Amino acid sequence: MYVYPEPPAEPTCVLLLVPIELVPIVGALFGQMEQRRGWKTTADWEQGYKAFVQLQAQLMSNCLADLIAEIRALRGVKPDYTGVPVEDRTTDMYRDLNDIIGHLNTLIFALSGGLDNDDNIMQILRGDTPATDTRNIVDLLE
Amino acid sequence: MALVQRTHLLRLRFRDNDLAESTCEINLPTGVGLSSALTFLVSWRAIVVQVSSAVCIDADLIVRYIEPAPASAGAGSDCLRSGTFILNTATADLAVVRVPSIDAALLESSGPYAGIRVDQSITAIIDFVAALTSGIGGVEPCDPFVSDLVSIDQAFREQF
Hints:
The complex is a heterodimer.
Chain A: H1 23-31, H2 42-58, H3 63-75, H4 97-112, H5 118-126, H6 135-141
Chain B: E1 4-5, E2 8-15, E3 21-28, H1 34-48, E4 55-62, E5 65-66, E6 81-89, E7 94-100, H2 123-134, E8 149-159
Antiparallel strand pairs in B: 1-5, 2-3, 2-4, 6-7, 6-8
């Protein structure tokens, strides 16, 4: 008999990569946990039922592909490869995040007006200071 | 072929100290009304638990109908291949409904989930989901915890 476990104080999870051809079998295995008879109490069963149906739903989320798409969208495609269909693009066709950070540093320097004032911009990016409290951004808004 | 009613089945499920389970089953005539059958079930359970040293954990009244002359199943049918429909409930949870031997023609034929995901644009699937979420004749299904089924979340093939 299963007792639904107490979740940890700080909820966490593990990422399990399921080959897509195994999704029907893994889903069926999870499905076996929906049965009342496997759980000690009705309360355990209700929690377990909902958790394992959720796991089955996640099997259809194609999460890794979505995650890669999100990361690639963040990186941005290089100008030479904008005409390449998304499904045919490879990782080298996207900008490197280090290059983006380099450009960002240049932008920060330009916005700050020089070495004397860059702290304001850095504080905004870190979330330490509201933009309206800085001279540089207020100047830009005006 | 019209369905034919069978006897009502009364099933009491018992669990012993090793967590093993077994059932006590009896039948009631089809002419017994549901209300009377439920009353009988409650009384019957109280009597049977006096005879068993295990604990009664479940009491079911099952109203049964059978197909007296079923047609032959299709060559590609497989009851271990299930259509699994996961639905959103009114309490923001998920509930599952399975159909044995989901018709392979109802599965997507391209994309990463080809042969796995149910094509929800097919009329038969639309009707199936509507019956679950909107009900039939004013009667709406619910999940095991009495939450209304609201919409389809995922539908795919599982293999038992």
